[in-house]
Structures are given as structure tokens and as C-alpha cells.
Amino acid sequence: MPGFRVTERSMASNTLANLQVNLARNQQLQNQLSSGKLITKASDSPGGAVIAMQHRADMATLNQYSRNADDGIGWLNMADTSLSSASTQLNRARELVLSGLSSGSAGSPEAREAIALEVENIRDSMINLSNTTYLDRPIFGGSTPGAIAFDKNGVYQGDDGKINRTISGNATVRVDTGAEDVFGSGNTNVFHLLGKIADDLRNDPVGLQADLSEVDTAQKRIQAGLSGVGSRYNQVSEMQQTAQNRVLDLRAQLSDVEDIDLPKTITELALQQTAYQAALAATAKVIQPSLVDFLR
Amino acid sequence: MSTFSGLNTALSALYAQRRALDVTGQNIANVNTEGYSRQRVELSPVENVTEPARYSLSAGVGDGVRITGVTRLHNEFMTNRTRSEHGLNEYLQAQKTVYANVEQALAEPSDNGLQAQFSDYWNAWSDVANRPGDASARTQLLSRANTVAGTMRTTRANLGELYTATREQLTADVDVVNQTTAGIADLNTRIALAKVADMPTNELSDKRDTLILRLSELTGATARPKKDGSTDVLLAGAVLVQGDTVRALQAVGSTTVDGRTIAPPQVQFADSGGVAAIASGRIASRLEALNTTVPDAVQGLDDVAGQLITSVNAQHAQGWDITVVPPATTPTPVQGGDFFSGTDAADIGVAIADPTKVAASSTATNPFQGDNATLLANLAKDPAGADVQYRNFVVDIGISAQTVNRRADAQQVIADDVTAAEQAESGVSLDEEMTNMLQFQRAYEAAAKVISVVDSTLDSLINMKR
């Protein structure tokens, strides 16, 4: 056993082993410093590695949620703009119906004809609004592959498909707006109503009274659609903010787990290098002298 | 008692001290020779005549010094310990290398490993869900799926190459074992012959011990010295070398990872075909790598690939694609077919080449609805899904690797310690040799002085009468 007897070779092999350990530790620290990572393979820290991989996957998913939300916000923005315009236009139509009513059947047909023309213009412009597209997809057309939601006659061309966006682990939000919910369905839709108003102005001014209440109903539908779009817009943008914050949190945590503590590592490396140099110096000194040097 | 016996006594001292100086010289010459055990001259006094006989005269003083032998100072127990610790150390160091290679093949955790590619792939499904009609989103999905499949195949192939390389190393190691056992048998013969002729065998024994140590490092073999000077080498009780006879070993089994179940790699005795039980040493590590470590990693990867293929294909089959049959310009949806082809990591591929065949919608009536794509993207979070399975797989390997690394580091220290202890016990100390040299030099000088003193007393005696 060592302690009884020490020989040059036992000392040399011990010293070499110690130098090896020293150098291996040096290399490990150098690796950490140059890569900036504490964990480069799973065995460096299995627990840390599972967190690192989990966080990376979560970050990728959350970034995707954020991109989904971006897309959803685009859809909802378009819907908001076009519904606001539609509401303004419908207000103007309501004013026109009122002025048509006040002139009544006593009013001149020419004046009513002028009003009817304006109502028809409003109808065309509202059909245009209903065909607003986002990235070439009609936002009121469901999941239709076609380019328009309503044709020139105000007949629905879309389908009942829903466009959903996944914006968090357990929330999907509908980002399109059901055309029949906001514009009414079939023969009772707003375009049909506007056509009927134009017709009534020309031929049946008495019917305008009934039309007025229907305009109010249509306006209510559009308003309800608008508020729905607004609330969904809020939800999407809040969830997006949450996802982005969570990504920042995860990135910080990942860095905690995976990245080196720079001052600590540099200090350790400096200490390690000092230890290595000391070991080298000791090796050079210890092995050198023997009795041979003192025999003459 | 002869008048001249004093001269003879001193002469025996001159011989003995000179021989002792020779041995010191041999020790110093071999101070750096690996496996050399220091030697010592055994001196013993020549007794005076003690048998009572008519002409036997005794002054009660001995007749000088005699060399009884040159002893090799080595400790058999320590040598045995060195063998077993070195065997275990070689086993663990080799295992450490195997795990390092497996981890290298997986390259996790990183920003561009398979895990990151999985994430990209699932995100591509989300993009398809966002824009089901957009050909670019569908094309991107297919290219990312191809990346995932390609990486799995590459990783699987790398593990397969690791298996084949390890199998080649096994054959090479077994060849070395056979050479070494032949060398041991040869030395056994020479030592037994020399023993019979009463010749010194110290250097031959050192050589044999070096060979046995190499054998222990390869196989964890143990040695059993015998009376005639030969040493038997045993492999878990089975004789490998007995005197001058050797049982050769051979490596058998598949050279590719896929043939491992039909022909598992093992080491056999060439004569009987019986399996050689090798529990330690580098060969044990090779066998474990070939039968457990690498196949487990391959199986783990295959399972992940299998899970990916089944889960994606099952969900994809629930959906409808946007096939357009010319001359029509609107789609005639067809139910989704297999998205991935193959069954494991070796043959996984993307079965779809046409982006319109991606079944993103859950209904035939609304083919531009991306809800099936969303469901596919959600597979990323499935607790039993391929992602989670892959993470567990990587971490399991990490844990095993960490355990082996720790054991290997601890064993390295132990192996270094026993080596140092053995070298301390049997190695040459220059200080000691120098001291011995002085001692023998002085003794030689003193013996020479005795001769000159006896010579001068005889001179006085002879010249007394003048």
C-alpha cells in the first residue's frame, strides 16, 4: 500500500493521474465557456435536459400561438372595419327611409326616385363591404373556396364553415364572422331589405313604415356582430400578449437551466488554471532530485 | 581450519557484493520499464562445519557468504487486485465512450435537433390550419415532415454504424485476446523449463504478468499460479490457458443492428462453441453495447417514429384533402391517406408528395376549413405523443450515461490508485538502489581490505624465520 514505500514510478503515475483530472476539468470549463452552455448533452444533467427540451418545445408552440393570433387579429380587424362602415351606411339608409316617409305618398315621385337611387347605391356598396377579403379569402364567406360571400343580387355564396385559430393550449377563437348572423339570412337579409326599400320608395311609400323597423333590426344585427368582433379581438390580443410574456419567461428559465454563469465560470477557470500550473510546477520539482544528485 | 580460509571467506564476499551490484544495476536499468518488478539478492552466511568427525576442525566461525537467489519482489494479492480493478475500469471507460457516441448521435438538447424539428413540423400544421387553401403552407408542411423523417433515418443510420463499428472492435479485441493467451502459454512453457533447470525466471514472470493484466483489461480474466511456475488463466471459472494449452475465443453474431435479434453477438470458445462468460473488461462493454445499449437506443428511436407515424396517419385519415380533378377548378375532396410511410425510424418517409393531398379539413363539404390540421398540430401536446416519448427517450439515455460516467470516473481513481500502489510495492526506487549501491560498494571495499590484511599477516608469518 502507498505509505510504506514510494517509488519514482508510483509518484509519476499518481502525478500524471492528478494532472489528467486537472486537465479534464480545465477542458470541461473551457467547453462551457466557449459554448456558453452548461448542458450540451443529456447526461450533463438529465433533469436540466428535460426542462431544456420541454421549454424549447413550449416556446415553439407559444410562438406559433402568437403567429396564429396575428393572423386572427388580421381577420378580426378587417371584419371590424367593414362592419363599422356597413353600420354607417345603414344609418344613412335609415335617414333616407325617414325622409322618404316624411315626404310620404304626397311627395314628388322624382324626389323619391332620387332617394331610391341613393338606397340602391348603399345596397351595392354594402354588398361590396360584405365581400371584404383577407389574404384573398372573403371574411364573411365561411370556408368557401370562392372569392365572394354575396353576389350582385345579395345572394349568399359562402358556406357555413367556421375559421378558427388556436391561440392557446385550450382556446380556439372563431376569427371569421357568420354572414347570416350580421347580414341576415335568405330573403330577409339586409341587401334584400335595401332592394325592397328602393322598390317601396318608387311604388309603395306606405310600406316604408314596416321597412323602417326592419332596418332597425338589421342595424341591431350589425351592431351585435361588431361588438362580437370587438370582444373576440380583445380576447385574441390578450392571449397573444400572454403567449409572448410566457415565451419571455420560458427563455429566462431556459437560460437559467442551460446557460453558464459567466463570472462564476471565469473565476472557476482561473482557479483551475492556477491549480493546474501549481500541479505542473510541483511535478517538475518533485520528480527531479534523487539521491543520485547528492552522490559524488 | 585452514590457514588460508580467511582469504576464501573474503573472496566469497567479493563475489556476493559484485553480484548484488549487478542486480542493483539491473534494477536501475529497468526503473522505467513497465511491468518490471524490482529484484533483490538474497544473501546467506556459509555455516561452519558442524558435523563431528575426525578431521573436522572448526574455529566456530563461518566460511563467508553465499547467494541463495535473486528474488522478484511482487505481491500476488496486489497484482490480483490490480487485474480486477483494471478490468472493471476498462469496462466502464468503454461504456462511457459508447454512451458518449449515442448521445452524440442524438445531439440533444439543442436548437436544431430532432426535438426542434418536431416543433417546426407541428407548427407547419398550424400554418396549414391558418391558411388551408394556401399551397405554400402545405408545401412547407411537407418539406418539414421530410426533414423530420430524414433526421430520424440519419440518426437511426448513425446508431447502426455505431453498432457495426463496435462489432468490428469486438472481433479485433477477441483477436488480441487470442494473441495474448498464446503469449501467456508460451511464457508458461519457458518458465516451467527454466524452473526445472533452476534458472532465474524473474523477467519472464514480469512479462507474463503484463500479458495477464492486458487480458484482464480485455476480459476480466483471473489468474491462478501453479507449483511448476506456470499460471492458469480463468474466465469466470472456465479455463482459458492451462500450462501450455490455450482455448481460443471467437466473436460471433450479427454485424448489423437489424440482425441482432436473430444472431445476437457473443463470444464463444472456438473449440466447443460454448458461450464464454465475460463479465468485465473491454469485451464485456462491447457485448453490452451490442446487446443492450445501442439496440435499446435504436428501439427507443423506432418507438418514437412508430408513434409519430401511427398518430399522424390516424388523424390524417379523419380529414379531407383538396384534390382537384381537371377540368373542374373546385376541389373534389378525398379522404386523407397515409401521411407518413414506413413503420420505424429506419424506413420512415413522407407518403405524400402533392400538397393538395394534405387532409386539412374535417369535412368533405368545407375542404378549406383547417380544423383537422389544428387537431394534427395539437398532437404535439399529446402526453402519449411522439414529442413526449422522444424527450423521455433522450432523458433516459442521459440518466444511464450520467450513471456510467460517474461510475467510470470513480473507478478511474481506484484503478490509478491500485496501479500506483502496485508500482510502489514492486517498482524500483532510485534512492533505495543508490543506498544499496553504496552499501555493496563499501562491503566490497571492506572485503578487499580483509584480503590485503590477511595477505600482510601471511607475509609476516612467511618472513618470520629470516
Give a structural overview.
The complex is a heterodimer of chains A (296) and B (466). Chain A has 296 residues and is mostly helical. Chain A is built from seven helices and four strands; from the N terminus they run H-H-H-E-E-E-E-H-H-H-H. Chain A has helices spanning 8-35, 46-103, 109-130, 179-183, 190-203, 208-258, 262-287, and strands at residues 133-134, 137-138, 164-168, 171-174. In chain A, the strands form two sheets. Chain A has a two-stranded antiparallel ribbon with strand order 1-2. In chain A, strand 1 and strand 2 form a beta hairpin. In chain A, helix 2 (46-103) packs antiparallel against helix 6. The longest helix of chain A is centred in the N-terminal third of the chain and has 58 residues, at 46-103. The radius of gyration of chain A is 39 Å and the shape is rod-shaped. Chain A starts with 7 loop residues before the first helix and ends in a 9-residue tail after the last helix. Chain B has 466 residues and is of the alpha+beta class. Chain B folds into two domains: 3-72 and 427-464, no CATH class; 82-414, no CATH class. Chain B is 58% helix and 9% strand. Chain B has nine helices and ten strands. Chain B has a four-stranded antiparallel β-sheet. The mean pLDDT of chain B is 91. Chains A and B meet through helix 1, helix 2 and strand 3 of A and helix 2, helix 3, helix 7, helix 8 and helix 9 of B.
Shape of chain B: rod-shaped
- Give, in spatial order, the strands making up the sheet with the most strands of chain A: 1-2
Helicity of chain A, as a percent range: 55-70%
As laid out across the biggest beta sheet of chain B, the strand order is 3-4-5-6
Which parts of chain A are unreliable, with pLDDT below 50 for 5 consecutive residues or more?
Answer: none
Termini distance of chain A? Answer: 33 Å
Tell me which protein chains meet in the greatest interface and how many residues each side has.
A-B, 56 and 72 residues
Number of helices of chain A: 7
Number of helices, counting only DSSP H or I runs of 4 residues or more of chain B: 9
What quaternary form is this?
Answer: heterodimer
Backbone structural class of chain A: mainly alpha
- Total strand count of chain B, please? 10
Residue-averaged pLDDT of chain B, rounded?
A: 91
Main pleated sheet of chain B: 4 strands, antiparallel
Largest sheet of chain A: 2 strands, antiparallel
Q: Count of DSSP E strands of chain A?
A: 4
What is the average per-residue confidence, as pLDDT of chain A, rounded to a whole number? 88
Helix content of chain B: 55-70%
